Amino acid sequence: MSQVVSKANMRFMRPMILALVLVTMGLSAPATSHPAASQRDYTLLLYCDWNYSGCYGAWFYSEEVTVVASYGQLDIFPGGSWGYSGCPDCMRMVENYGPAPQPVEGGGGEACAIPTDFHQVGSGTDSGSGTLHFEYTWSSSTGNKADLSACEMGERVSGYTANPFPSPPFKAGLSPSDPTELSFEATRDAEDNHQTPGPFVTPFTGATVTASQIYRYRCPCNNNNAWVTLMGPHDIVRTVTENGSGGWKFVISKSGSSATINPLQ
Predict the structure, then answer these.
(1) Which residues lie closer than 8 Å to 118 by C-beta, 6 or more apart?
(2) Looking at per-residue confidence, does 30 or 151 come out higher?
(3) Handedness of CA 108, 109, 111, 113 (dihedral sign)
(4) Cβ atoms 67, 76 nearer than 8 A
């Protein structure tokens, strides 16, 4: 339980001939890499082949366009402005592309909302029957949590030191998926309840099983929609030990908090 690489907002009017004009675009740079206070202007690239048999073009964010090679006639029109061209077809077609789109704030188009300030609310609590309860909350980079509707929050638990759990003392056949992965929409806060299916099995004996947990998010507009870790890893430790009174107890702990069943029966 626990967004994102912002693709450049491109407005294609006709297909580019990429075999002839190689253009590198800042598709992998996160939106926050652009100065927030600046505006992003557009540049119109028009390509005319050697024989003037065709003209192809597209709008790009100006700072995200670098011409690394060109063959034939390449014309660049910042903001769609007019300029000399050796290709009559392209000169005529500038009008067909219309005026440049309106400049937009740094970041490009709509802001890419991602979760920020992910944190635990208070301490973990023992909610009974060996369940360790946690609550988590976070904000949106846009200031509006509803903007995270396209994003997922999630948890990943992996690396169990014993799987299946030893039995006794744990329930026979207790074998969680490794990794265990859960996710949900990022517009709501999270509760995480760490439980251990029972019953415990006699004769009781000492045993410990540890797993590693992270909380994470992903958003279509960020990091190519790949998971980004927000918190962790931290250990979830389940232990059966003697209780000092002639019996046995179970303790589950994480992040300095624990829940207990004492005595085990």
Answers:
(1) 2, 136, 137, 138, 215, 217, 230, 231
(2) 151
(3) negative
(4) yes
Q: What is the 3-state secondary structure (H, E, C) of 115-150?
A: EEEEEECCCCEECCCCCEEEEEEEEECCCCHHHHCC
C-alpha span between 198 and 251 (Å, rounded)? 13
Instruction: Please determine, for residue 28, whether its predicted confidence score (pLDDT) is greater than 90.
Output: no
Residues 151, 139: contact at Cβ < 8 Å? no
Is 216:153 a contact under the CB 8 Å cutoff? yes
Residue 18 per-residue DSSP state: T
**62 neighbors 43 (Cβ within 8 angstroms):** yes
Q: Determine the 3-state secondary structure of 233 from DSSP.
A: strand
pTM over 0.70: no
Report, as an integer, the average pLDDT of 14-28: 27
Quick: pLDDT tens for 146-191: 999 999 999 999 999 999 999 999 999 999 999 999 999 999 999 9
Q: Is 190 left (phi over 0), alpha (psi -120 to 50) or beta?
A: beta
Domain ranges within the chain, ordered by starting residue: 11-105, 115-261
Q: Kindly state the average pLDDT of the residues 15-30.
A: 27
